[in-house]
Amino acid sequence: MLGWYEDHIFPKVLDWATRPLNRDRQHLISQAQGRVLEIGVGNGANFPFYAKSAVEIHGIEPGEALLAEARKFASTAPHPERFHLINAGAEKLPWPDHHFDTVIACLVFCTIPDYQAAAAEVFRVLKPGGALLVLEHVAHKKPGWRRTQRIIEPLWTPLACGCHLSRDSKTVFSDAGFDVSGLNQWQHPKLPTFAGYMLSGRALRPV
Ligand SMILES: C[S@@+](CC[C@H](N)C(=O)[O-])C[C@H]1O[C@@H](n2cnc3c(N)ncnc32)[C@H](O)[C@@H]1O
Q: Which terminus of the chain faces fewer neighbouring Cβ atoms within 10 Å, N or C?
């Protein structure tokens, strides 16, 4: 039953719930260049936004049903031959060190079970000077809202297929070695406060 919910209902809810983020997705994804890795592609919501500068686009997704949808969607995206999608988790990436120019983390570090390991892997596979492009929802800056997020989380996480509300992804990226001075935290005007405190921008792997 849970598998059926995750495969058929949750992707539709996610599409609907993240529609207010479409402009933010476009802004983020259009900056990807060279050989790109997108972590946890879901059903491929970001695919239409890749510009020509993204020459090779590798995507990982551990959910089989989502991956099948992403593959279908990629075949309708501009220059579909650029897309290479595989079943994998971000905690152990099947690529050598310094392989990618850009990595995309879009609404995924909230969900990856071992997100510290995933940040270390992303750092490893990025070239020195490469960019991790980030659009994530994170723990709110105000202690009162952080408390609310922690109260809601035990109900939210199973309903939202593993998504957490109170993660501090900026610190995790910084601990992994990234220069996080290009990341901003802000409240998205079109999302509810408990799930709409955003972390976005570019984290760089120092040269
Ligand atoms: C909230 S959805 C976002 C999907 C997509 N990135 C988007 O922007 O629409 C979270 C995604 O993280 C994926 N995920 C879960 N565990 C993961 C892991 N260990 N490594 C990579 N992705 C994972 C889920 O399968 C799901 O597709």
A: N
Whether 61 contacts 108, CB under 8 Å: no
Q: Is the pLDDT of residue 4 over 70?
A: yes
Question: For the chain, what percent of residues have pLDDT higher than 90?
Answer: 90
Sheet containing 197-204: order of strands: 83-86, 54-60, 34-39, 100-106, 126-137, 197-204, 183-187
Return the pLDDT at 87.
98
Q: Tell me which fold the domain 2-204 belongs to.
A: Rossmann fold (3.40.50)
pLDDT (0 to 100) of residue 8: 79
Which pTM value belongs to this model?
A: 0.96
Mutate to test the pocket of ligand 1, among 14, 108, 132 (most ligand atoms within 8 A of CB): 108
Scan for tokens 């997020």, then name that residue. Answer: 149
Distance 163 CA to ligand 1 centre (A): 9
Q: pLDDT band at 1, cuts 50/70/90? A: low
Per-residue pLDDT averaged across 18-44, rounded?
96
> Residues 36, 100: contact at Cβ < 8 Å?
yes
Among 111, 138, 191, residue to substitute to test ligand 1 (most atoms within 8 Å of Cβ): 111
